[in-house]
Every structure is written in C-alpha cells, then in structure tokens.
Amino acid sequence: MASAPIATATELLARAHDGVLLYGLTPPRQSSTREQADSIAAAALTRLESVHVDGLILYDVDAEADRTEAPRPFPFMPMMDPADFLDHHLAGWAGSVIVYRAVGKYGADQLDQWLGEADQGRVLTVLVGAASRHQVVRTSLPEAYRRHAALPRPPRMGGVVIAERHAEAGTEHLRMLRKQEAGCEFFVSQICYDLNRTCNLLSDYAHNCRDQGLDPRPVVLTLAPCGSAKTLEFMTWLGIEVPRWLRAEINRGARPPSSPRSPARPTSPSAATITQVTRHRPQQGRGHRALTRRQGRPLGRRSRHPPARGDLQQLRFHRREAGPP
After folding, report:
1. Distance between CA atoms of 259 and 169, rounded to whole angstroms?
2. Of 183, 189, 168, 160, whose CA–CA distance to 284 is shortest?
3. 2 found inside a domain
4. Looking at 192-298, which runs of residues are DSSP E strands?
5. Strand locations in 104-255 (E)
6. How far is it, in rounded angstroms, from Cα 129 to Cα 103?
7. Residue 99 and residue 83: Cα distance in Å, rounded?
8. How many CB atoms lie within 10 A of CB 172?
9. Number of folded domains in the chain?
10. At a CB cut-off of 8 Å and minimum separation 6, what does 26 contact?
11. Residue 251, domain extent
12. What is the number of helices (H) and of strands (E) in the chain?
C-alpha cells in the first residue's frame, strides 16, 4: 500500500510553506457494497505507490441543484460519506487527509459530533457552504465556522477559493480574509485552467494581507485534466472557466501536420487534451511559483486523476479526479 512521508496535520501545514503535493478522491457511490468500496480504495492507493504524495483530499459531494438554471449534465448520484470512506476503507493510508464537509447537508449536532471526534493528529477539514444563496441548508457556513471555533480540539480547518468568482466580482480575496479571520489556516482552489484569473486573485490576496500586516495562508491549487466534451460540459456547469483554445482541443480534437506519407487524422479529444494540458501546465505552474515567491506567499498543489509520474513530479500540483460524481 501507499505510504505518506508526512504523518501529521501539523507537519503537512508546515510543509505547505515549501510546497506540497496532494491527491484528491471522490468517495464511491453510496450504493457501493463494502467489497466495491474496498476495491476502489485499494486501486487508488496502488496508483499512488510510486508518487509519494504528501496527503489526500476526500470530497463531500452535494447535488448543488440551485447552482444554476442550466440542467445538470450528469444525473446526481449520492456518494459515500468521505469520513466513513476514510475510516472503513482507507486503512492502508497512514498519512494526512483533508476531509471536505458540505455543511449544508448536516445538522449542527451532527457536524459538531464529527468535528469533535475527528483525529486531529492526521485529519484536517475544508468546510464548504451552499452553492447559491437560494439553497436550503441545515447548517450555514458562518454557523459551521462558529461551531468549529467553539470546540476545544477540532481538526485544523481550511476554506475554498474560486478564481472565477473573483473575476466576476473582484472580492474573492476579501472572502479569503474573512475566512482566515474565522479560523481557516489554508485554502484549496477550485480546478484551475486560467492562469491570469488565478494570479490576479493570489496577487490581490497577498497584497491585502501585506497591507493589513497579516501572514498569507497557504493556497493549494487544483489541477484536473479534462478528457471528454461531456466532462467539459460538467466542468462548465460547476463554474470552471476553461480557455477557448483548450475548449476547441477538447471538443474538436487535435489534427497533426499533414505529410505525403501520413495524411492528417483527427485524434481523440482525450488524447488532444492530455497533450495540450501537459505542454501548457508547466508554464502555468512556473508562472504561479514565480508570482508567489515574489510575494512571499506559500503555494501548494493538488490533483485529480493520476498523471504520468514525470509530469506529477515536475508540476508538484495537487490533482483532482474530475468528472461526473
């Protein structure tokens, strides 16, 4: 089984100042049998054996029906509770884990119980609010923050950050400061495809921290290759901005140069996308790193889907498994 070089939540946060590599997993469907969930967990850990990630992220999937008026590209399938998936199926993972909590799904007492019982030595949490102001919730994000602060020994907490929201309203960095004041010790981004939007947000956040005499919290950037037009449609529904040139590669595929002996043939969207992403992302990663070094702001990375080992070692981004939940 995969083993983690970092065992505690405190060490993970300390290491984040130098850069960390995390790997994100969506738990199996709620209808999965115990044997199926065990098999999914074992397969994920096997893929990570040669990668040596610093920690895992487990997502808490919500229907988010009020996110937009557009129809959901994939039907919603309830997923296993990420905390239960960790406790009962990921025994082979000894390292740190960031467990997402979509707080609107849980009653206040239910949330209190989990926050109070979580192993704070290795478990961190990201508390996520409603997808829209119209969503009916059992616990609001501000209330969840208050309850977290009232507990004697809760897991260390982070917050979500969305560059697309900053591009529209220009206030995402202020949200980050409010979340930081509420107790967030790190941030995890939505999937990043637009370098400029991400850099604008990180710059505004770093300069506002400097103006207020605050230390910026580590920001973990999320990368996820998109291998099909249907997945691109779902990512768009989630509010992820994908550059037009990359949309064209995904939707239409890449056409290699013609030659007398080898006529041009369109490749599959998946092949075109992976090729373009691996060429583009090293530049994107270097741009992010250069900016954060100048501003003295910690930067982490996370990923969905395992990339080629060389790409993962080069990018050191957290990868997330993108696709229909």
Report:
1. 49
2. 189
3. no
4. 219-223
5. 123-128, 157-161, 187-191, 219-223
6. 6
7. 7
8. 21
9. 1
10. 58, 59, 61, 79, 321, 325
11. 9-320
12. 12, 9
CA-wise closest residue to 141 among 80, 182, 84, 93: 182
**Can you tell me which residue has the tokens 């990339």?**
307
Q: Is residue 201 part of a domain?
A: yes
For residues 42 and 92, what is the distance between their CA atoms, to the nearest angstrom? Answer: 8
- CATH number for position 156: 3.20.20.220
Q: Taking 80 as the threshold, does the pLDDT of residue 58 lie above it?
A: yes
Contact 318, 21 (CB under 8 A): yes
- The pLDDT of residue 267 is 38
Task: Flag whether 204 is in a domain.
Answer: yes
Pair of tokens at residue 274:
């992976």
AA identity, residue 145: Y
Share of the chain above pLDDT 90, in %: 49
For residue 307, the model assigns a pLDDT of 36
Residue with tokens 């920690």: 55
Torsion of CA 34, 35, 39, 42, to 10 degrees: 70
Give dist(CA 232, CA 240) in Å, integer.
9
Which helix (DSSP H) or strand (DSSP E) does residue 181 occupy? helix 172-181
The two tokens of residue 108 are 């206040």
Q: How many residues are present in the chain? A: 325
Residue 1 lies in a domain: no
130 pLDDT more than 90: no
